[in-house]
Specification:
Subcellular location: Nucleus
Family: Belongs to the THOC2 family.
Distance between the termini: 115 Å
Structural class: mainly alpha
Protein name: THO complex subunit 2
GO biological process, one term: mRNA processing
Strand order of the largest sheet: 1-2
Strand content: under 5%
Shape: elongated
Largest sheet: 2 strands, parallel
GO molecular function, one term: mRNA binding
Number of strands: 2
């Protein structure tokens, strides 16, 4: 009554116009045709009028007269007014204001004049009737009312049963049992039934019972009996009591309720002849018993699961099985006696979903449908409901299928003709059905096909508004998949076809949805249903049985059994299998082989289970010593690589997981990506590759695939394609590269706070190696367009994405090569008649056009002072080229071609191979030979073009505005050192580039100074490397030593390759002047002295690292020494010094650090085998150098007059570390006496071969100001005329006197510069000052 129909103005002006308006309103209301609406409006109007009177707004006389006027407008107006007075009776009795109650009593008294007293006695309360005067006492009135009601409803009517005649019941049964196929109807039969009741004095209730009994026998004639029962004119509660009495009869332990009784009860409920609430109380068992039974079943299922997962004796197993069978039998018996479930089944079969849903709501979740007949009946109802929609969109072409007719009965669900109709009833039915859909595989397949049809329609929908309206349906399908389809699959017995059918739906979902469904299936569904609890335990038990017996020999048989288990319960199975693999890594190979019988859905679930196992937060990723990655993570990574390579499993989820881990700053899981890329593409990053493999890696793609890797890359085409497609489809290629490049520093500065240094190094190596491996995979597998489209420019990589420069150029290098080649081809097409020289010029032009923007971009990467000495062109050229551009590995090509020829010959000799297979193999080998030779020819042409380009560019590479010392410093700092530890190929490339810069006679490039810088002191470089970096640094030093050894071995080679080259000048007369004066060149014998000095410096640095006791120093120097073993040590006494230290390491570390012991023993054994190749120092270099007297004061380089080092026992046999202190003491006066500079500034700008860098000096000076002050004072003193005179005096005299003076300074080879002076003691973190040098390069 929210709408006010009597305005306050009417009440205020009642006498003038209000009464007239009120009566007119009532007349208008009574004239409407809608009776219900009329009654409601009249009640509202009369109620508001009476309320105004009760509240005092309207006088009693006005209100009573108005009511008397309108009472005649309609026949039932008195009844309507009585209802209004009844409501006001309740309201006024509840208020505290007595005035309103008194006014209400007055109003009722006034209404007695025009209303029947009977209506008021019927509607009003007894106290109100007493107040009005209609009754005398309210108490007596109530007592009398109770007696009358008791007599009417609870007193048994007396029937004279003896008067009943059996003949009447016989005739009644005859009438009801007659043939009803003719024109007989209930209207014709009812008079006969009534006549029999009257004639034979039959009890009407017993007659009704007989009618129900006959209906029960002929329940298919519902169309006849239902109208008969309706017209029998019995009260609903009477019919319900009779029906309930029938159910009570069958509640005895030995009785079973017939299905016909359930059937007629369901029909009567469906036609509303009986109320469910009244009939439900007559059924057994009670709801509380059902709840207790459900709890007991759940507990029993969990207990059975625990028994299956514990080890018991065989006798106990048999006892448990017997008890389990007894429980199952008891359970089935109890279920059969449940009358509520029987009624529920009947309701579902007649299509009364409304009442069936009400019954299921009274029981625990999924309790009703766990009864198989109930589940099947509900499935049949769903069949009928989805029939039209399935026929339209889900049925395969050519299929017929059973037809389910629509139910034309009250309460039956409407059939679905569109996807939106499924939300009305079908999804709700499926929600009640749950896992029991497994009883009806046909319906399961229908629902899956409907889901596929919906997903295809959803994916093809282009209208955003329409798609937004379909989102709720998508959520419903996901819920049904989670709650019904997947749990039902678990209860099916190894149904591979249904698993594949379900995969047809699942593959249309994004992997995020699929993995969410797998997670809920694995972690929630199996715990919510007692049946699934037992199935899970049985699956684990069977999996344990098969895994115990799985070997390489029985993979086929065990694989089939594992496949059967996986069809229904893949997540449970794989969870156990993965747990076993994490403990026993030798299971990986047989497990991978046994997975070939899996379905597509099982493969996808396996991917999810692997990711879940990897992301387990309870697992520690480090071993207890905190220095190595846990074995379980390594096992899972190996499994990932093997499984994803062999089987067609989607990679997107695993790749996204690794990406997310990197974004979170966690680098452990890069091991997974490394294994996946290695197994799927064959590209492996290892520093243990042989020299032949390393040589093959400098060739083309085909040569790298054939000879550069341990595995065969040609068999990886399909796995590589799948990995590439996954990366491109989900845009993960570039993000992974950038995250790995950034994470290298994150490992050191973010992850290393609480980690052991050894583990930090391993994580850094893993991150770096995976980056190199992944970048190599992208470069070799992505098309050039895909690669160029995804990799941004170098300045964007470095500035926007904060990518380190070495990684940025590594990613950009293939892009530059592609751009140059494309531009070159374009220029060649424009001028088709060009010849050799013109082609070279076009290639140079193409390089300039492509690389000019890069030259400008890199200038912002470093401070402007860097470009004072190095030109951006030189910097970009160094970083953009690779070994493929500098040299052709002819030997590697020849080796691979010879291998193929040998294979062809072996094929010809093989008589067991079928001819067609032999022919195919020969054709493959021959074609591969042709391709390799063609690739070699193309690389040769390419290298010639590159060398021609470098020859033209070299004059503009180096400015040398400061000194050549600074040029070499920046070159090593910004180019060589960052790249030589990037990869093994880059290490060789750096050495080759330095040699090439020397061979090209690059202006301002001092080769001698560069080599001296590299070899002078490797202590700090080695100490700052990781394990893999030290191996690569060793390869770099090995390549450098190879070149030096070649020059050292023969005077002719030296004179040819170094004799007249500006890189071996020892006097620089002006900046940019590399004159060809023969006197300025370092001659062969002095070069041999220099090489001996480099070997000595390497020995001293190695001994220092071995004697520090630091794990990193010892490990790294042993790795470096192992790599340079072919060319170092060559001098016998230096080798002996190393041998003593390494032998000591073997003794000290055998028990303490076994890994160092293994490294030391390996190196010690190899060095002993090469000891025969070592030579005495006198054979390595000529110790007595003839004195040149022509330029003693001006030239202090390799050709300077310098006394040779005497062949003393201290210098030959004593290890460097034993003689260091004595040498330093003896060298101090000699160094002071040989100082040629006259000021500290001049000493600072000297280009001495062994001088330290400016930065290192400044740092050392800042740390040791007092020491530096003394050094400067001593330098000034040594440059005075008196000191010069002393030097002249020492140069005079006979050779014997000179020899005696030289013997006073053991360890000194030749004259040394002031920058080579060593303090007796220095800090380990200070820059290492170089040893005394046999050469000195000065500025002229």
């Amino acid at each position: 009554m929210a709408v006010v129909m009597l305005p306050n103005d009417w009440i205020k002006n009642w006498e003038k116009s209000g009464k007239h308006d009120f009566i007119q309103l009532c007349q208008n209301i009574t004239e409407t045709t809608d009776h219900d609406r009329t009654t409601q409006d009249l009640q509202t109007v009369l109620y508001e009028l009476c309320v105004h009177m009760v509240k005092g707004s309207l006088q009693l006389d006005f209100a009573s007269r108005a009511l008397s006027d309108v009472i005649e407008l309609q026949a039932d107006m008195s009844s309507i007014l009585a209802d209004v007075l009844s409501i006001l009776d309740i309201e006024t009795s509840a208020v505290e204001e007595k005035e309103q109650r008194e006014r209400y009593i007055q109003l009722v008294g006034a209404c007695l004049l025009f209303m029947p007293e009977v209506l008021l006695k019927e509607r009003l309360d007894a106290e109100t009737l007493e107040a009005v005067g209609l009754i005398k006492q309210a108490h007596q009135f109530n007592q009398k009312s109770v007696k009358i009601k008791t007599k009417l409803f609870y007193k048994q009517q007396k029937f004279n049963l003896l008067r009943e005649e059996n003949e009447g019941y016989a005739k009644l049964i005859t009438e009801l049992g007659q043939d009803l196929s003719g024109n007989m109807s209930s209207q014709l039969l009812l008079p006969s039934v009534q006549s029999l009741i009257g004639y034979f004095n039959l009890d009407p209730n017993r007659v009704l019972d007989v009618i129900l009994g006959v209906f029960e026998c002929r329940w298919d004639q519902a169309d006849f009996f239902l109208p008969l029962i309706k017209s029998y004119a019995c009260e609903p509660h009477t019919l319900c009591h009779i029906l309930g009495f029938k159910f009570h009869f069958y509640q005895e332990p030995s009785e079973s309720t017939p299905s016909s009784l359930y059937q007629i009860a369901a029909v009567l409920l469906q036609h509303k002849l009986v109320q469910l609430e009244e009939l439900y109380v007559h059924l057994t068992p009670a709801d509380s018993s059902i709840v207790e039974q459900h709890k007991r079943w759940t507990a029993e299922a969990k207990q059975a699961a625990r028994r299956l997962t514990t080890v018991v004796l065989p006798s106990e197993k048999n006892d448990d099985k017997d008890k389990e069978k007894e429980r199952e039998e008891e359970k089935s018996e109890k279920v059969l006696d449940n009358q509520k479930l029987g009624l529920l089944e009947a309701l579902l079969r007649v299509g009364d979903w409304h009442h069936a849903r009400s019954v299921m709501d009274q029981m625990p979740a999924f309790y009703a449908t766990s009864h198989k007949p109930v589940a099947i009946a509900l499935c049949q109802l769903i069949h009928t409901t989805i029939e039209p929609l399935y026929r339209r969109v889900g049925m395969p072409k050519g299929a017929k299928g059973a037809v389910f007719k629509a139910l034309r009965v009250p309460g039956a669900p409407c059939q679905a003709v569109a996807f939106e109709d499924l939300r009305r009833d079908v999804f709700c039915m499926l929600g009640y059905l749950g896992p029991q859909l497994s009883h009806e595989p046909v319906l399961y397949a229908k629902l899956v096909r409907l889901g596929k049809a919906f997903m295809r329609e959803y994916q093809h929908e282009s209208n955003p508004d329409t798609k937004a309206k379909m989102d709720p349906l998508l959520s419903c399908w996901l819920s049904i998949t989670d709650q019904v389809l997947l749990p039902s699959l678990s209860l099916m017995e190894a149904n591979a076809c249904m698993s594949e059918e379900l995969w047809g739906l699942f593959k249309l979902f994004p992997y995020q949805h699929r993995y969410r469904l797998y997670g809920q299936w694995k972690n929630e569904s199996y715990n919510n249903h007692p049946q699934l609890v037992k199935v899970k335990a049985q699956t684990v038990d069977r999996a344990r049985y098969f895994m115990k017996r799985l070997t390489k020999e029985n993979v086929k048989q065990s694989g089939r059994q594992i496949g059967k288990l996986s069809h229904s319960n893949p997540t449970v199975l794989f969870d156990y299998v993965l747990s076993q693999i994490q403990w026993y890594d030798n299971l990986i190979s047989p497990v991978v082989d046994s997975l070939k019988y899996l379905t597509s859905l099982s493969y996808d679930a396996l991917a999810y289970c692997i990711i879940e196992a990897l992301a387990n937060p309870e697992k520690e990723r480090m071993k207890h010593d905190d220095t190595t990655i846990s074995s379980w993570l390594q096992s899972l990574a190996s499994l990932c690589g093997a499984v994803f390579r062999k089987y067609p499993i989607e990679l997107a989820g695993l790749l996204q997981y690794v990406t997310n881990q990197l974004k979170a700053g966690k680098s452990f899981d890069l091991l997974i990506l490394k294994e996946v890329v290695q197994k799927m593409s064959g590209i492996e990053i290892t520093d243990d590759m042989t020299s032949e493999q390393l040589e093959a890696m400098t060739g083309g793609d085909l040569l790298r695939a054939e000879g550069g890797y341990f595995g065969q890359v040609r068999n990886m085409k399909k796995p590589s394609q799948r990995l590439k497609e996954a990366l491109l489809e989900h845009d993960l290629a570039l993000p992974l590269c950038l995250l790995m490049a950034q994470q290298r520093h994150g490992v050191v500065f973010s992850e290393s706070q609480h980690k052991h240094l050894k583990l930090v190094g391993k994580l850094y190596d893993q991150c770096h190696d995976t980056l190199v491996q992944f970048g190599g995979f992208l470069a070799s597998n992505l098309s050039t367009d895909d690669y160029v489209r995804r990799v941004p420019s170098i300045d964007v990589l470095c500035k926007l994405y904060h990518t380190p420069h070495d990684a940025a150029f590594f990613l950009s290098r293939p892009m530059y090569s592609h751009h140059i080649q494309s531009k070159f081809e374009e220029l060649k097409r424009a001028d088709k008649g060009s010849r050799g020289q013109q082609k070279l010029q076009k290639y140079v032009s193409a390089c300039e056009m492509v690389m000019s923007p890069v030259h400008e971009a890199v200038m912002s990467l470093h401070p402007p002072r860097v470009w004072d000495d190095l030109r951006p062109q030189f910097y970009v050229t160094f970083w953009s080229l690779s070994m493929y551009d500098l040299a052709v590995p002819h030997d590697a090509y020849e080796r691979e071609v010879n291998k193929l020829k040998s294979q062809v010959k072996a094929l010809e000799d093989n008589t067991d191979m079928p001819l067609n297979k032999k022919k195919k193999e020969k054709e493959r080998c021959t074609a591969l030979q042709d391709k390799l030779q063609e690739e070699e020819r193309k690389q040769l042409e390419h290298v010639q073009r590159v060398l021609h380009r470098l020859k033209l560019e070299k004059d503009n590479w180096l400015f040398a505005k400061s000194t050549k010392n600074e040029v070499i410093t920046k070159f090593l700092q910004l180019c060589v050192f960052p790249r030589c530890v990037f990869s093994a190929s880059d290490a060789v490339y750096c050495a080759r580039f330095i040699e090439l810069a020397h061979q090209q006679k690059t202006p301002n490039f001092c080769t001698l100074l560069c080599y001296d810088r590299v070899f002078s002191d490797i202590t700090f470089t080695v100490a700052s490397c990781t394990e893999n970096e030290s191996r690569r640094y060793g390869r770099f030093l090995c390549s450098m030593l190879e070149t030096v050894t070649r020059w050292h071995s023969d005077r002719a080679i030296y004179e040819k390759e170094c004799g007249n080259y500006p890189g071996f000048l020892t006097i620089f007369r002006a900046s940019g002047f590399d004159g060809g004066n023969k006197a300025d060149q370092l001659d062969y014998e002095n070069f041999r002295h220099v090489v001996h000095k480099w070997h000595y410096k390497l020995t001293k640095a190695s001994v220092h690292c071995l004697e520090t006791g630091e794990y990193t120093h010892i490990r790294n120097i042993l790795m470096v020494l192992t790599k340079i073993l072919p060319f170092y040590p060559k001098v016998l006494n230096l080798g002996q010094a190393l041998e003593v230290r390494v032998q000591r390491i073997c003794q000290e570390e055998k028990e303490r650090r076994p890994d160092l012991y293994a490294l030391a023993m390996g190196y010690y054994g190899q060095m002993k085998s090469r000891k025969m190749h070592m030579v005495p120092e006198s054979e390595f270099h000529q110790k007595d150098v003839p004195v040149r007297g022509n330029t003693p004061a001006q030239q202090n380089g390799p050709g300077a007059a310098a006394p040779a080092k005497p062949a003393t026992s201290a210098s030959q046999d004593t290890p460097p570390s034993h003689t260091d202190n004595s040498k330093e003491k003896a060298q101090t006066p000699a160094k002071s006496s040989n100082k040629t500079s006259t000021s500290a500034a001049k000493a600072h700008t000297s280009n001495g071969v062994s001088s330290s860098t400016k930065t290192a000096k400044e740092k050392d000076e800042s740390e040791h100001p007092a020491k530096e002050k003394k050094e400067r004072e001593r330098a000034v003193t040594s440059s005075t005329p008196e000191r010069k005179g002393e030097r002249k005096e020492r140069t005079k005299g006979s050779p014997k006197e000179q020899e005696s003076r030289r013997s006073a300074t053991p360890g000194r080879n030749t004259a040394s510069t002031d920058s080579e002076r060593e303090p007796k003691r220095r800090r380990l973190d200070a820059p290492s000052p170089p040893l005394s040098s046999p050469v000195k390069v000065s500025m002229a």
